[in-house]
Amino acid sequence: MRRTPSEGKVAFLIWKYRSSPEFAKLRPLTQRDYNRQLDKIGARYGKLGLSVFDLREISREFYGWRDLLAKTSPRQADYAMAVLKALNEWGVRRGYLHHNRAAGIENVYRADRSEKTWSDEQEEAFMAEASPSMALGFLMASEAGISPEDIYVMPKTAIRGTILVGRRQKTGVPFAVPISPTLRAAFSAAPASDSVTILNKADGRPFDPKGNGFRSVFRATREAAGVEDRTHKDCRGTFMTRRRAMGWTAEEVALCVGHPIAGEKGAQSAYIDRIAVAIANAERLWTRWYGSNEERDLQTAVQTADKKAAPKGG
Q1: In this structure, is residue 155 part of a structural domain?
Q2: If both were cysteines, with which of 92, 153, 196, 286 could 162 make a disulfide (CB 3.0 to 4.6 Å apart)?
Q3: How confident is the model at residue 127, as a pLDDT?
Q4: What strands, in cross-sheet order, belong to the sheet with 174-178?
């Protein structure tokens, strides 16, 4: 059993933060990641007095630690600083600190993958090499904009007629997206399984919730297809880019992928039923883009292509 840290130490602040209602409100995955970073912060600063965290000079130390971590992983360095900021901010609000000396620390990692969308040619090459499971995992991202971490665990109950309804693991934000004819065909081609998840391996068992196994096969399939510098997560960006190009509004896309909506703050954020709005949005989009004649034309095109690709004879 762990001993309660001595009051007046940074370790005590970390202990109090972990025991707080604010920390308890974080999503389980976020709590797990925060705990890893808090362990690092505790190992480095836990024995220091809290008064040290109020000194102006501590900012120089924080920057030095960030730069040291960045030599190994810029992204992890930024995450450590983000948790350090959150810890200090909580300490200020609760009266343990006077200042948040980590507040102004900038990120060192910069990732601009806005132009790293999958082209039609790259997608066709990947699909030609993909197993039914890999094809479905790809299309759940490229045709529905679902994050990889949500794809691995999405249950079959998320399929509600013509739309997919879920909640992002990372943020807890609900989303709903119309099921395109292409994605519907992939559902039909996927291996039959008694598993509760939509995406499963060839043997019918679900993939590891963290994506272990799926990622390695996805990478091998991409390499076999001759596609470079594209990731599974880029499929999500491909969905958003393509739908905006089709004429979907930024708000419509945001409701589909679980992104914040500009201007939805304060009372609107508190009182609007986001999932109800997302479902209504997805149903409208399905009717507008995939329903009636449009859906029949697309389904006919898919079936015709399948017949042409089928081998002759028995």
Answers
A1: yes
A2: 286
A3: 95
A4: 159-160, 163-167, 174-178
